[in-house]
Amino acid sequence: MSEYGLLCRTFMENMMIIDLVCKMEIDEEAASYSLNYDGKDYFFCSEGCMEEFTRRPLDYVESV
Question: Counting runs of H as helices and runs of E as strands, what totals does the chain give?
């Protein structure tokens, strides 16, 4: 594998995502809280953010 290919692979394996509630950047692989809503997985930094999303998912999903 080329050096470029290795860098791309490393980047893709460590992709960061945004918690839709608090806008915190989190590592999808390390996220302790997640749920599936309308066929899509969402990840959260805390139980509180996940609960807030669960109460009002359309407030967060439509903003994406």
Answer: 3, 4
What pLDDT, on the 0 to 100 scale, is given for residue 63? 53
DSSP 16: E
Are 41 and 34 in contact, with CB atoms under 8 Å apart? Answer: yes
6 falls within a domain: no
Distance CA 3, CA 20 (A): 34
User: If the chain, 64 residues long, is cut into consecutive pieces of 10 residues, what is the mean pLDDT of each piece?
Assistant: 52 76 92 94 96 96 68
In a domain, residue 21? The reply is yes
Counted domains in the chain: 1
